[in-house]
Amino acid sequence: MQSAADIGAVCARGGATIGGAASTEAASSARVFAVACTCVLVAAAALAGWAPFGLSVATVFLFAGPHNWSELRYFITRLPVRLGRSRIFFGTAAAGVVALTASYAALSFAPGAGAWGEDGWYFSTAMWNSAAVAWMVALVMLRGRQTPRRDWGWALPVGCALVGLNWLAPQVFALALVYLHPLVALWFLDRQLRRTRRSWSRAYRVCLALLPLALGVLWWRLAASASLPEDGALALRIVRHAGAGIVPGISSHLLVSTHVFLETLHYGVWLVGVPVVAGAGLAPWRFRSIPLVRHREGWPRLIGALLVAGAVVVVVLWVCFLADYATTRDVYFTVAMAHVLAEVPFLLRMV
Amino acid sequence: MRLFKYCVAFAVLLVAVSPALADVALPGKERVRRNDEIRGDLPYSQMTIESVEGLREVRLQIPRSQFARMSAAAGIVQDDAGVAQAGTLKNAGTVIAGLFLSLAVVLTGLLLVRSRRRVAVGRAAVALLVCVCAAAVAAVAAYANAAPPVGWRAQDPGTLLKAVSGKSLTGSIRIEVVEEGSGIKLLIPAKSHAGEEEE
To answer: What is the pTM of this model?
Structure first.
């Protein structure tokens, strides 16, 4: 995989002919990338609308674990060897990810949580959401200190507004996170393109413009469809995960299809999109391309052990899915809150 | 300066109005619950149906811990603290929402004032529009006293579905509050003891 730097070097070295050839090649590869993105988008939307349960079960089984590993690999690659001025930023990020994930899991699995009733869940969900927003605002402010050329002062009023809206409808707020999380992956891909494949960026943004169109078609086709049957524990979980019961008056078929569509794109971005765009440096077998492994002040053994342990967890997850899919799905989506939160600091570092 | 005055006046207006709207009484119509609706507002518990050898009557066992929580959720007076808590959490949530939204508007105003020389009129208008939309959403929600969405945890009926035979089954049961356990149990005699009733 040739990086943008390589393409730039070729342009600088060669004459008009070589430069023209490189430019033609870049334009051609951008077209191929755009066509591939469009095909994935259309196929995912069609499958999600046609067989939402099947696609949900299959994608979560196949890609939930590997995409987490891929994200871990990406984040480790983006960690600086020397934290320097970013020490407080990464410290706050790590503390928030651990504390918020632990409290989220505690809320989900707390003994007797089922008897909390409406008030108990209202309060606990609103508190957790508020803590998450406060943590994100703190990260934005810390990031703002590191990049004084950009004005990040808006974070505080926006954070206050989000906390306020959250207290009006905490579970709607939580559901919004469920639907927004897959879109964050698209943002990551955009930032990565700006770094390593700038020539593809325009084509990618054109494809992104097709996303609302695909969602519009999906909603138009499914708006009047009957709700999905909630027979069995698994169907019930999938339907509830998509927000049926929280958003009244909307077909659960539409909700599940939308959620599965976005999740499929999310998995696609992390498993294929980002590694392809980032180039050979993100190939799973190339540990030496990780700065923390390559650098003499890095931690090659720790990073290696972490990635191997992650791969083992992926295999264990597959085995658990085979043994008891419904329970494993519950546990996975609770623990996976860690990767949802971990995306925040790394995205902030990239914008 | 004029923009600043407008922002301040708008912020003061919102701060004054938010708590007032938050106190508006519930509309006088009750929501009709459908049978196929998932009642996430109700507490849930594990339930076991057991066939017990030698049992003479059907018995529903509810652990004391569950019973106390169910009573609180149903608004049954148990102790003053429980009742007070059930009523105040929602109101507190609305007040907190109002406070944070007001704070957001005030902070936005301060931000615009602080950087008024750099901020274009278009940006200021957009910020103002966002504030107005947020305040409108908050006011609508507070006025409608919109109930928080129902709990979305999937309740798995498990093998209890097998207990349904298609026709309704009727009989008297004895309700017992027990100290141990965390789930509700319905104990059914393994054999019929018709004619041996003592009551």
So the answer is: 0.69
